[in-house]
Structure formats: C-alpha cells, structure tokens
Write a structure and sequence with these properties.
The structure is a single chain. This protein has 152 residues and is an alpha/beta fold. 22% of the residues lie in helices and 16% in strands. Strands 1-2-4-6-8-10 form a six-stranded parallel β-sheet. Strands 3-5-7-9-11-12 form a six-stranded parallel β-sheet. It is elongated. The protein starts with a strand and ends with a helix.
C-alpha cells in the first residue's frame, strides 16, 4: 500500500496503527520525534529516511528498505538493526550509543558513518561482514587496528 510522507507522519504522530508493508513515496522526515518507539514491519521508503534524534526508538522493523540515505544519528536508545536491512545510499549511525554491532545481511550501497565503539565489538566471526563495508575515513584506522587484534 502506497502512502505519502505527509500522511505517514500524520498517522504515526497521531498514534494510529500503520499496517505492515507500507511504501512511502518520497523522503520521510521524522527527525527529533522523541516519542517514536517503532515503525511498521516491511516499510519501504522511496527516498531518505531521517530518524535523527528519535531517542525512544530501540529498533528498526524487519524488512526495512530505504531507497535513499538512512539517518539514525543520535538515536541513543537504538540497540540493534534488523538483519537484511537495505540502504541504497549512506547510513549514519553516529552517536547511536546503545548500538554495539552491525547485523548480518546488512546492505549499504555507500558509506557507513559510525563511532569507533561499533568497531571495538567486532568478533572474529563478524570480521568478513565488516570488511565488505565502506566506512568513512576516520573509522578505517580503527578498523585496521581491530583486525590486527582479532587475527593475533
């Protein structure tokens, strides 16, 4: 079912139930919606999805596809990302202080912006996943250091 970004936001902020499998036709700006706790399963956003500052958001729905960039900066309660998350541009995870790892099946077609803390928790088993990602320059040195620690 297709829905406009304005209708989606209106229903979401009014506390109305949103069915799974919605397709938002355009950019969806939910920046600083501090009461936002969840999004519907199978959500597809055909533009950018801006969730920066959604401090009550603890997880993203399974089946989430973002055709633009996904901004999760300052989502301080976000504890995990769904396996199979697809982001067709860049992903911003800076200051997601409760997030400690990236899931298997994550697809990011451009750069991942994150804090070094995500890199510190890489396990030997997860190493191949992280090697396939394109990180911002400031994180690459941290990643190389962590790889050296793991392979010792």
């Amino acid at each position: 079912m297709n829905i406009s970004p304005e209708k989606f936001k209106e229903k979401l902020l009014a506390g109305k139930h949103l069915p799974p499998g919605l397709v938002v036709n355009g950019d969806l700006d939910l920046r600083n919606c501090t009461s936002l706790t969840h999004l519907p399963e199978g959500l597809v956003v055909k533009g950018l999805l801006d969730l920066e500052g959604c401090t009550s958001l603890t997880h993203l729905p399974s089946g989430l596809v973002v055709k633009g960039y996904l901004n999760l900066r300052n989502c301080t309660s976000l504890t995990h990302l769904p396996s199979g998350l697809v982001v067709e541009s860049w992903l911003d995870l800076r200051n997601c202080t409760s997030l400690t790892h990236l899931p298997s099946g994550l697809v990011v077609e451009n750069t991942i912006y994150c804090d070094e803390s995500i890199i510190y928790y890489i396990s030997k088993e997860d190493l191949p996943l992280y090697l396939n990602f394109k990180f911002e320059e400031s994180i690459k040195d941290c990643l190389i250091k962590r790889i050296r620690e793991i392979v010792k």
